[in-house]
UniProtKB/TrEMBL annotation:
Any one Gene Ontology molecular-function term assigned to this protein's record: Delta4-3-oxosteroid 5beta-reductase activity
Protein name (Swiss-Prot/TrEMBL): AK1D1 dehydrogenase
Stored Gene3D superfamilies: NADP-dependent oxidoreductase domain (3.20.20.100)
Protein species of origin: Scopus umbretta (Hammerkop)
Similarity comment: Belongs to the aldo/keto reductase family.
Sequence positions that bind substrate: 112
Superkingdom of this protein's organism: Eukaryota
Gene Ontology biological process: bile acid biosynthetic process
Site label Lowers pKa of active site Tyr, positions: 56
Active site: 27 (proton donor)
Residue intervals of the NADP-dependent oxidoreductase domain: 7-272
Amino acid sequence: TPKGSCLESVKIAIDTGYRHIDGAFVYYNEHEVGQAIREKIAEGKIKREDIFYCGKLWNTCHPPELVRPTLEKTLNILQLDYVDLYIIELPMAFKPGDAIYPKDENGKIIYHETDLCATWEAMEACKDAGLAKSIGVSNFNRRQLEMILNKPGLKYKPVSNQVECHPYFTQPKLLEFCRQHDIVIVGYSPLGTSRDETWVNVSSPPLLKDPVLNAIGKKYNKTAAQVALRFSIQRGVVVIPKSFNPQRIRENFQIFDFSLTEKEMKEIEALNKNVRYVELLM
Ligand code: A2P
């Protein structure tokens, strides 16, 4: 992101009323997020405990001995004492080192064999040390979740699983499984992504152009984006819409003054194409 735009956006978001901020070391803007939070605390607008910051453990840092130092690095960048949630960003590990995407001479990602359960135990230790209030996962499928849930001596269950989730990719089975296990689904790309061809499958049509979302929006004087977000929160899915535009940051927060009928929820659920925008081909 252009220098400073994240700082400004997070400050506007906090002023608007957002409290949950989804970040990651690999977004390379954690310093700006931390600065925005600290400035808003200094202004007296919020207290640290009002904010819910989620950080992420990157793929090159899965070996258990790297987990705590990696979180400490994030805290140092944020200039905060703890994160509210720390999650394993992806269930697959890359070769540890400075390269975020380590590649061999043929340009292929170099994976790294680690035991996800051992990584999880190191995450548990971070919670015990008070560096993370809660711990969770991201991009985990049911089998990977079960591996953690069935781990002998499990101390803490993942509280959440952050996955792609929106009207074109509704995740009914994973949602039901997570409900049964008290795991909150946090839906990323809730607006259907930025459609950046370098990482998005753009063969799936743009979510916000969908006629059903727009027609329902018209009825409530809301945009397709607001309907998409409302749909997710109404089915218990946490949303983390991304915007660096002040007007859209505010727009995406105006979703608590209307509700969708059961029939509308069903209509939107029926839009599911079961196709991901974010294929994570690496
Ligand atoms: P921008 O940052 O210019 O607002 P997702 O959250 O699904 O990843 O979607 C993010 C993309 O959607 C970004 O390109 C963002 O652009 C755009 N966006 C965010 N909010 C809205 C909105 N209310 N209406 C239309 N586009 C939006």
